[in-house]
Amino acid sequence: MSIKDKINSLIGNFEDETIVDEENSNNQESASSLASDPLALKKRDYEEAKEEFLSKVKEIRDLHSDREKKIKKNINYLQSEKEKLEKELSQYRADLVEAELQGKSSKTDNLNKKISNAKDEIAELEERIDSYKAAGSIQIKPEQRKELLELYQVVDKKRITYRKAGRKRQEQLKELKKQLEKEIEKVRHIFDRPGSLDVINKLSIIEHLIHEHGRVEMLNHERESMYKDWLEGDKSYKKYLEGYVHKKE
Which intervals carry biased composition (Low complexity) (predicted)? Predict the structure, then answer.
Protein backbone atom coordinates (compact mmCIF):
# COMPACT_ATOMS: atom_id res chain seq x y z
CA MET A 1 0.00 0.00 0.00
CA SER A 2 1.36 3.42 -0.97
CA ILE A 3 1.85 6.24 1.51
CA LYS A 4 -1.12 8.02 -0.11
CA ASP A 5 -3.37 4.97 0.37
CA LYS A 6 -2.26 4.60 3.97
CA ILE A 7 -3.03 8.24 4.68
CA ASN A 8 -6.43 7.86 3.00
CA SER A 9 -7.21 4.73 5.01
CA LEU A 10 -6.58 6.64 8.23
CA ILE A 11 -7.90 10.11 7.55
CA GLY A 12 -10.13 9.83 4.47
CA ASN A 13 -9.85 11.39 1.05
CA PHE A 14 -10.32 15.15 1.01
CA GLU A 15 -11.99 14.96 -2.41
CA ASP A 16 -14.94 13.08 -0.90
CA GLU A 17 -15.49 15.58 1.88
CA THR A 18 -17.99 18.44 2.00
CA ILE A 19 -17.08 21.89 3.23
CA VAL A 20 -18.77 22.59 6.55
CA ASP A 21 -19.89 25.92 7.92
CA GLU A 22 -16.87 27.23 9.83
CA GLU A 23 -19.15 29.04 12.31
CA ASN A 24 -20.60 25.71 13.42
CA SER A 25 -17.56 23.55 12.83
CA ASN A 26 -16.85 23.20 16.56
CA ASN A 27 -20.35 21.84 17.24
CA GLN A 28 -20.94 19.46 14.33
CA GLU A 29 -19.16 17.11 11.95
CA SER A 30 -20.10 16.50 8.35
CA ALA A 31 -21.72 13.17 7.51
CA SER A 32 -18.98 12.35 5.01
CA SER A 33 -16.30 13.11 7.59
CA LEU A 34 -17.87 10.66 10.03
CA ALA A 35 -18.37 8.04 7.35
CA SER A 36 -14.68 8.19 6.42
CA ASP A 37 -13.51 7.91 10.02
CA PRO A 38 -14.50 4.67 11.84
CA LEU A 39 -12.97 5.96 15.09
CA ALA A 40 -15.18 9.07 15.00
CA LEU A 41 -18.22 6.83 14.48
CA LYS A 42 -17.27 4.69 17.48
CA LYS A 43 -16.76 7.83 19.57
CA ARG A 44 -20.17 9.17 18.52
CA ASP A 45 -21.86 5.82 19.35
CA TYR A 46 -20.20 5.82 22.78
CA GLU A 47 -21.18 9.43 23.53
CA GLU A 48 -24.79 8.87 22.40
CA ALA A 49 -25.08 5.76 24.62
CA LYS A 50 -23.57 7.65 27.55
CA GLU A 51 -25.99 10.56 27.01
CA GLU A 52 -28.96 8.17 26.99
CA PHE A 53 -27.78 6.58 30.24
CA LEU A 54 -27.23 9.95 31.97
CA SER A 55 -30.62 11.17 30.73
CA LYS A 56 -32.33 8.16 32.31
CA VAL A 57 -30.41 8.68 35.57
CA LYS A 58 -31.58 12.33 35.65
CA GLU A 59 -35.17 11.29 34.93
CA ILE A 60 -35.17 8.85 37.87
CA ARG A 61 -33.42 11.37 40.12
CA ASP A 62 -36.02 14.02 39.30
CA LEU A 63 -38.83 11.63 40.23
CA HIS A 64 -37.08 10.78 43.49
CA SER A 65 -36.37 14.43 44.14
CA ASP A 66 -40.10 15.32 44.15
CA ARG A 67 -40.83 12.36 46.39
CA GLU A 68 -38.01 13.24 48.76
CA LYS A 69 -39.28 16.83 49.06
CA LYS A 70 -42.71 15.58 50.15
CA ILE A 71 -41.17 13.13 52.61
CA LYS A 72 -38.93 15.84 54.07
CA LYS A 73 -41.90 18.18 54.44
CA ASN A 74 -43.90 15.50 56.32
CA ILE A 75 -40.95 14.66 58.56
CA ASN A 76 -40.47 18.33 59.45
CA TYR A 77 -44.16 18.71 60.28
CA LEU A 78 -44.25 15.56 62.45
CA GLN A 79 -41.00 16.63 64.15
CA SER A 80 -42.51 20.00 65.11
CA GLU A 81 -45.63 18.26 66.48
CA LYS A 82 -43.44 15.94 68.52
CA GLU A 83 -41.51 18.91 69.95
CA LYS A 84 -44.78 20.55 71.02
CA LEU A 85 -45.88 17.36 72.78
CA GLU A 86 -42.49 17.04 74.48
CA LYS A 87 -42.85 20.57 75.86
CA GLU A 88 -46.37 19.72 77.09
CA LEU A 89 -45.07 16.48 78.65
CA SER A 90 -42.32 18.40 80.43
CA GLN A 91 -44.89 20.81 81.80
CA TYR A 92 -47.21 17.94 82.90
CA ARG A 93 -44.34 16.37 84.83
CA ALA A 94 -43.52 19.64 86.56
CA ASP A 95 -47.20 20.10 87.47
CA LEU A 96 -47.33 16.51 88.75
CA VAL A 97 -44.44 17.09 91.15
CA GLU A 98 -46.18 20.20 92.47
CA ALA A 99 -49.54 18.37 92.83
CA GLU A 100 -47.90 15.48 94.67
CA LEU A 101 -46.25 17.93 97.10
CA GLN A 102 -49.63 19.53 97.71
CA GLY A 103 -51.28 16.11 98.13
CA LYS A 104 -53.90 16.75 95.44
CA SER A 105 -54.68 13.20 94.37
CA SER A 106 -57.38 14.07 91.82
CA LYS A 107 -54.99 16.46 90.06
CA THR A 108 -52.16 13.91 90.09
CA ASP A 109 -54.46 11.27 88.53
CA ASN A 110 -55.43 13.67 85.77
CA LEU A 111 -51.82 14.67 85.15
CA ASN A 112 -50.68 11.03 85.08
CA LYS A 113 -53.32 10.35 82.43
CA LYS A 114 -52.14 13.35 80.37
CA ILE A 115 -48.52 12.23 80.71
CA SER A 116 -49.43 8.72 79.57
CA ASN A 117 -51.38 10.04 76.56
CA ALA A 118 -48.55 12.43 75.63
CA LYS A 119 -46.03 9.58 75.76
CA ASP A 120 -48.25 7.44 73.50
CA GLU A 121 -48.68 10.30 71.01
CA ILE A 122 -44.93 10.99 70.98
CA ALA A 123 -44.19 7.30 70.42
CA GLU A 124 -46.69 7.23 67.55
CA LEU A 125 -45.13 10.35 65.99
CA GLU A 126 -41.65 8.84 66.30
CA GLU A 127 -42.92 5.70 64.55
CA ARG A 128 -44.37 7.74 61.69
CA ILE A 129 -41.16 9.82 61.41
CA ASP A 130 -39.06 6.64 61.26
CA SER A 131 -41.31 5.16 58.56
CA TYR A 132 -40.94 8.32 56.43
CA LYS A 133 -37.16 8.26 56.91
CA ALA A 134 -37.11 4.61 55.82
CA ALA A 135 -39.27 5.44 52.78
CA GLY A 136 -36.89 8.25 51.87
CA SER A 137 -33.91 5.90 51.90
CA ILE A 138 -35.50 3.30 49.61
CA GLN A 139 -33.51 2.92 46.41
CA ILE A 140 -34.89 2.90 42.87
CA LYS A 141 -37.43 0.29 41.83
CA PRO A 142 -36.11 -3.08 40.60
CA GLU A 143 -37.32 -2.45 37.04
CA GLN A 144 -35.62 0.97 37.02
CA ARG A 145 -32.41 -0.56 38.37
CA LYS A 146 -32.55 -3.23 35.66
CA GLU A 147 -33.07 -0.63 32.93
CA LEU A 148 -30.14 1.47 34.19
CA LEU A 149 -27.91 -1.59 34.40
CA GLU A 150 -28.73 -2.56 30.81
CA LEU A 151 -28.04 0.99 29.59
CA TYR A 152 -24.77 1.11 31.52
CA GLN A 153 -23.65 -2.22 30.02
CA VAL A 154 -24.25 -0.78 26.53
CA VAL A 155 -22.24 2.32 27.47
CA ASP A 156 -19.41 0.22 28.89
CA LYS A 157 -19.28 -2.00 25.80
CA LYS A 158 -19.17 1.01 23.45
CA ARG A 159 -16.53 2.69 25.66
CA ILE A 160 -14.28 -0.38 25.45
CA THR A 161 -14.80 -0.61 21.66
CA TYR A 162 -14.00 3.09 21.25
CA ARG A 163 -10.85 2.91 23.40
CA LYS A 164 -9.57 -0.18 21.62
CA ALA A 165 -10.11 1.54 18.27
CA GLY A 166 -8.38 4.63 19.66
CA ARG A 167 -5.31 2.63 20.72
CA LYS A 168 -5.21 0.96 17.31
CA ARG A 169 -5.47 4.35 15.61
CA GLN A 170 -2.58 5.69 17.69
CA GLU A 171 -0.43 2.73 16.65
CA GLN A 172 -1.34 3.32 13.00
CA LEU A 173 -0.56 7.02 13.30
CA LYS A 174 2.81 6.28 14.87
CA GLU A 175 3.63 4.01 11.94
CA LEU A 176 2.40 6.63 9.48
CA LYS A 177 4.52 9.27 11.22
CA LYS A 178 7.60 7.07 10.77
CA GLN A 179 6.83 6.68 7.06
CA LEU A 180 6.30 10.42 6.68
CA GLU A 181 9.65 11.05 8.32
CA LYS A 182 11.26 8.72 5.78
CA GLU A 183 9.52 10.50 2.91
CA ILE A 184 10.70 13.86 4.25
CA GLU A 185 14.28 12.61 4.35
CA LYS A 186 13.99 11.35 0.77
CA VAL A 187 13.21 14.82 -0.59
CA ARG A 188 15.08 16.95 1.92
CA HIS A 189 18.45 16.75 0.15
CA ILE A 190 16.94 17.93 -3.19
CA PHE A 191 16.23 21.43 -1.92
CA ASP A 192 18.97 23.74 -0.75
CA ARG A 193 17.74 27.30 -1.31
CA PRO A 194 15.20 29.57 0.51
CA GLY A 195 11.59 29.32 -0.70
CA SER A 196 12.00 25.88 -2.23
CA LEU A 197 11.07 23.78 0.80
CA ASP A 198 7.35 23.70 0.02
CA VAL A 199 6.97 19.92 -0.05
CA ILE A 200 9.03 19.42 3.09
CA ASN A 201 7.03 22.08 4.91
CA LYS A 202 3.74 20.49 3.92
CA LEU A 203 4.84 17.06 5.06
CA SER A 204 6.14 18.57 8.29
CA ILE A 205 2.80 20.27 8.91
CA ILE A 206 1.00 16.93 8.56
CA GLU A 207 3.56 15.30 10.82
CA HIS A 208 2.96 18.05 13.39
CA LEU A 209 -0.83 17.71 13.19
CA ILE A 210 -0.62 13.96 13.71
CA HIS A 211 1.66 14.47 16.70
CA GLU A 212 -0.43 17.25 18.28
CA HIS A 213 -4.00 16.20 17.48
CA GLY A 214 -3.89 12.48 16.70
CA ARG A 215 -5.45 13.05 13.28
CA VAL A 216 -5.05 15.37 10.32
CA GLU A 217 -7.54 18.23 10.07
CA MET A 218 -9.91 17.40 7.21
CA LEU A 219 -10.10 20.87 5.70
CA ASN A 220 -6.45 21.78 6.15
CA HIS A 221 -5.25 23.67 3.06
CA GLU A 222 -1.70 22.38 3.35
CA ARG A 223 -2.89 18.79 3.20
CA GLU A 224 -4.90 19.41 0.04
CA SER A 225 -1.93 21.14 -1.58
CA MET A 226 0.35 18.27 -0.65
CA TYR A 227 -1.97 15.80 -2.35
CA LYS A 228 -2.09 17.94 -5.47
CA ASP A 229 1.57 18.82 -5.67
CA TRP A 230 3.34 15.73 -4.39
CA LEU A 231 1.36 12.59 -3.74
CA GLU A 232 -0.86 13.01 -6.80
CA GLY A 233 2.09 14.14 -8.91
CA ASP A 234 0.98 17.46 -10.39
CA LYS A 235 2.53 17.71 -13.88
CA SER A 236 3.82 21.26 -13.61
CA TYR A 237 5.27 20.59 -10.21
CA LYS A 238 6.86 17.36 -11.44
CA LYS A 239 8.32 19.21 -14.40
CA TYR A 240 9.79 21.83 -12.09
CA LEU A 241 11.33 19.15 -9.87
CA GLU A 242 12.76 17.22 -12.80
CA GLY A 243 14.22 20.41 -14.32
CA TYR A 244 15.66 21.50 -11.01
CA VAL A 245 17.24 18.11 -10.35
CA HIS A 246 18.60 18.04 -13.92
CA LYS A 247 20.21 21.47 -13.45
CA LYS A 248 21.77 20.32 -10.19
CA GLU A 249 23.24 17.30 -11.91
Answer: 25-39
